Amino acid sequence: MTEVRSGGAQGVPFDALIVGAGFSGLYQLLCLRDRLGLNVEILESASGVGGTWYWNRYPGARCDSESHAYCYSFSDALTQEWEWSERYPGQPEILRYLDHVAERFDLKRSIRFDTRVTGATYDEESRLWEVTTAGGERLSTRFLVAAVGCLSSANVPDIPGLASFAGRWYHTGEWPHGGVDFGGARVGLVGTGSTGIQAAPVIAETAAHLTVFQRTANYSVPARNAPLTQEFRRYAKEHAADIRRTMHTSYNAHPFLISDRRAVDTPQKEREAIYEAAWAKGGLQFRATFRDLLSDPAANETAATFIKNKIREIVKDPLTAEKLAAIDHPYAAKRPPIDTGYFETFNRDNVTLVDVRATPIERITPEGIRTRDAEYPLDIIVFATGFDAMTGAMLRMDIRGRDGLRLADAWAAGPRNYLGLQVAGFPNLFMVTGPGSPSVLCNMPVPIEQHVEWITAYIDHMRRNGLSSIETTEAAMDAWVAQVNEAAAATLLPQASHSWYLGANVPGKPRVFMPYAGGMPKYRRICADVAANGYEGFVLGA
Question: Distance (Å, rounded) from C-alpha 50 to C-alpha 99?
């Protein structure tokens, strides 16, 4: 190990270290360094900024939030100067945007790239966090902020025989930066969540043959992506403040509001017309057509039936169409994908759908994938199997708090915390959009900005009042977990038993509904009230 690295003079710790240089980490750095004047650095395992958008370079990688909303809103100048090209930005454009932000605000000088955090231990005597890196460095800091992202720990399924595969395999969350040439190759795509739905049409364009292995059939609505017109760009800039107010009012932080009408009260002919218009417009606004879609099973069934019928209309082969429409959960109970030609892809002669719920994958062989009733020869396997969502990136850092308490042990039965911000026993450790916050149920930049600003305001409060530590309590965590469960139970979200919202995509992971489903506006009010009430639920140390 090297000597403990100081933030200034030898022996002086950093005021704060931030783990991760994505949307969260960049804004947290700006707030702590430039607004509070603290001595801060980001530790980033990648060679550049971007977080999930640095690693997720798979074919078709694209945001499902509209570009004029999937961006920072803290700087009017930044909003006015940046030009988005498409309704739904692709990975390269989002990465260019974040790189522009880092350059514009001179953030890179405070980022240590190619630095992976392997451990963090709280020293109670000094009230400092000792952070270790894969390169052997040991850094001390007063505050530790985990800006590691909700979807950043790739989940490679443990399928027997993977090591024996003679071809090449990739996970979409760790895609080669030089790309992958599918020309003339027999490709197997495992997974049909939002990533697989984006990747399949693009892979099919050049592959000799694409075999899609579907365990869980999924809903999807057309994105209707297109270049932005000059008129819309001008509108978005002129009405930026109004758009921001709408996002702060919206249940899931998008630039549109959920309709106040109820599907069950709407005559069928009128309801079908509303769905048709939403389908034609495309995008996530489809789920905003009626306010009872996620609370009333009968209402949800109207949307589910509409989408299943659309699948049957699009896909020419009846047997394939029925496999794709055999969806076993309510619409939007899992993250609702939007697509560009996904269902149409199955009309191609070079695409095959395999239902691995009916005929499970038994193993990977040197030649390909073997299911219970067949073997599929493959040259390339693509795992679109998602992430160890919301907790994976935190747990792989080996975080140890007061009295050596391991975060992995504190979360053995699920991620207990307070407001998605803190865990009892881990003083001065903050999470940005952690489990227990609205996070993945929202357009992410909005909860990210709210979290970062709340954390910044609290650290400023501590400094002005001569406080040295903040730590939540077991009682506060218990009360918050109860609120998270209550909010989820008021919706249909927990009915998707195999959703990554519940951790169901990772074998052995506790089944706990992780995000807060009460909506971003309500969550914002709760956090504001906590601060106004003297940071209720936290113990403040002198």
Answer: 7
| Residue-by-residue DSSP string for 373-398 | S-EEE-SEEEE---B-TTTHHHHTT-
- Listed in sequence order, the residues at least 6 apart from 334 whose beta carbon sits closer than 8 Å to its beta carbon are 193, 218, 496, 499, 500, 501
Q: Residue written as tokens 């709280």?
A: 122
Three-state SS for 227-248 is: ECCHHHHHHHHHCHHHHHHHHH
DSSP β-bridge partners for residue 40: 16
Question: Which residues is 117 bridged to in the sheet?
Answer: 133
CA distance 423 to 477: 7
Kind of pairing between the strands at 14-19 and 138-146: parallel
Torsion sign over Cα 431, 432, 433, 437: positive
> Would you state the structure tokens that stand for residue 394, as one six-digit string?
């935190």
- Kindly state the greatest CA–CA separation across the chain: 73
Domains present along the chain, CATH in parentheses? 4-153+389-541 (3.50.50.60), 162-383 (no CATH)
Radius of gyration of the chain (CA): 23
Query: Whole-model pTM?
Result: 0.94
Q: How many helices (H) and strands (E) does the chain have?
A: 16, 21
**Torsion angles phi and psi, residue 391, rounded to 5:** -120, -25
pLDDT by 10-residue block (mean), the chain, 542 residues: 42 91 97 98 96 93 96 97 98 98 98 96 95 96 89 72 96 92 97 94 98 96 98 97 97 96 98 98 96 97 98 98 96 91 98 96 96 97 74 83 92 87 96 90 95 97 92 93 90 72 49 81 97 93 70
Q: What pLDDT digit, counting tens, does each position of 401-420 carry?
A: 999 999 989 888 778 899 99
Residue partners of 243: CB distance under 8 A and separation at least 6: 68, 69, 236, 255
Cα torsion through 21, 97, 33, 459, rounded to 10: -70
Other CB atoms closer than 10 Å to residue 127's CB: what's the count?
14
